[in-house]
TrEMBL record:
InterPro entries: DinF-like, MATE_fam, MdtK-like. Its main location: membrane. It is a multi-pass membrane protein. It comes from Arthrobacter wenxiniae. This is MATE family efflux transporter.
């Protein structure tokens, strides 16, 4: 089992160039890989948006469901990265790859099960979210086709977690870059060339995801064989991975419930606000993943240094990356504010969507420094394996946020842009402030810094 919580480490000196290079070496490539999925959705939105508001709103609603399904499985990456990094830091590369292999098998099993369930539940779920008429038809068509890509998406998540734990974020960047280019070409050909409408956008993304999954599998299998690690699953290890993912699933479930509840309120504000909200949330996700590049660096570096027992270095890394996160949030906030009036034209010609989107983006820009703080500390605590606290804090944050959403819904603000402004104020300022408070309080203690690795090499001991 991991060693007991260390005493508070003495203050470390300001990080030198080597520490900064470590962070940038992981964070810069991670940025490109992380934004692949939101870029896929942005490409789908840009291509589908010119077909009409109903198509754009339908794809937005379906994408929210799809992101929820896949987002709940993000523990496949978030549990693999710190576990593999700890074992790597302790000099146990073969054990690290065995953990990664078990995670890939779990990803495949869960992906197949979720795809089957999604095909059956797509219609009822979309109707529960308030969709109807043409919006429902387009959302259902996009979602049903997209379910074929769920196993591939989960395999990609698990494989990226393994490579990050091995301190390799460049390979995911390369795979994501090629995948993004292929995705755009396929979607344009299927949507406009073969006139497949929203189904074409979904199919192009599915084919791209399976291509990316195949590349990752080749890379991980070769690395495992180089360390004489069997490719066949160790089902005891698979079960261990699934158990450890429980707390991270609760943490992620609270995040997805917050996003789903926000979409439900946006749906009640009419098609124009829903379409604008979909675009705003996609842009938020894009920026979140950009900020999360530092969180990925935190997961990999914190896990490795805790595995090696370097507590002082962990404190230094945490402090440095937190400041970087806030600073990066300031930069992205200013850029978003400047782009807010014009960005809507990239996706649709509807003036109502433009006005609502521009107003929402201004509010989102104000919350970017806070978002940078939140995402970095979230990555630090995930890297430390502090999943139980993150899960409980996530439930507390949701308890704060839901009354804010209820007020926005009950205020009957209508379908004008101000209604969407209040909705985004509740999300990007109120909800994110609650997350920042719970994460910041935890980071000030030393209870999350458990050093060492399990003696068995398994996740969770």
């Amino acid at each position: 089992m991991p060693k007991s919580v260390p005493q508070e480490a003495p203050s470390a000196p300001a990080p030198g160039p080597s520490t900064s290079r470590q962070i940038l070496h992981l964070a810069v490539p991670a940025f490109g890989a992380l934004i692949a999925e939101p870029l896929f959705l942005l490409a789908d939105s840009a291509i589908v948006g010119h077909l009409g508001v109903a198509e754009l709103a339908g794809v937005g609603l379906a994408a929210t469901v799809l992101q929820t399904v896949v987002g709940l499985m993000v523990f496949l990456a978030y549990s693999a990265t710190p576990a593999v990094a700890r074992l790597l830091g302790a000099g146990r590369r073969a054990d690290a790859l065995a953990v990664g292999r078990d995670g890939l098998w779990l990803a495949l099993v869960l992906g197949l099960a979720l795809a089957a369930a999604g095909w059956l539940a797509a219609g009822p779920v979309l109707r529960w979210m308030g969709a109807g008429g043409p919006v429902l038809g387009n959302a259902h068509e996009y979602l049903v086709v997209s379910m074929a890509g769920v196993p591939a998406m989960l395999l990609v998540l698990a494989a990226m977690g393994v490579l990050r734990g091995l301190q390799d974020t460049r390979t995911p960047l390369l795979v994501a870059g090629v995948g993004f280019a292929v995705n755009i070409a396929l979607n344009l050909a299927l949507v406009y060339g073969l006139r497949m409408s929203v189904a074409g956008a979904a199919l192009g993304t599915v084919l791209t995801q399976w291509g990316m999954a195949a590349v990752y599998l080749v890379i991980v299998v070769r690395a495992a064989r180089a360390e004489s690690v069997a490719v066949r699953p160790d089902w005891a290890g698979v079960r261990t991975v699934s158990r450890v993912g429980g707390w991270l699933t609760v943490r992620t479930l609270s995040l997805r419930m917050a996003i789903l509840a926000t979409v439900v309120v946006a749906t009640s504000q009419g098609p124009a606000n829903l379409a604008a909200h979909q675009l705003a949330m996609t842009l938020f996700t894009l920026l979140a993943f950009a900020l999360d590049a530092l969180a990925i660096a935190a997961q990999a570096l914190i896990g490795k240094e805790l595995g090696a027992g370097n507590v002082t270095v962990v404190r230094t890394l945490t402090r440095t990356m937190t400041w970087w996160g806030v600073g990066f949030g300031v930069v992205t906030g200013l850029a978003l504010w400047a782009a807010a009036p014009a960005v809507g034209w990239l996706f649709t010609n509807d003036a109502g969507v433009h006005r609502a989107l521009a107003a929402a983006l201004v509010v989102m820009a104000l919350g970017q420094p806070l978002a940078g703080y939140v995402f970095v500390l979230d990555g630090v605590l995930i890297g430390a394996g502090d999943a139980r606290y993150l899960a409980l804090a996530g439930l507390a944050n949701l308890a704060v946020y839901l009354p804010l959403l209820w007020w926005v819904r009950a205020a009957s603000l209508g379908d004008a842009p101000p209604a969407l402004v209040w909705l985004w104020a509740a999300f990007s300022l109120g909800y994110m402030a609650a997350r920042g408070a719970t994460l910041g309080l935890r980071a000030r203690t030393c209870r999350w810094m458990r050093v060492g690795v399990p003696a068995t090499g398994r996740i969770g001991g």
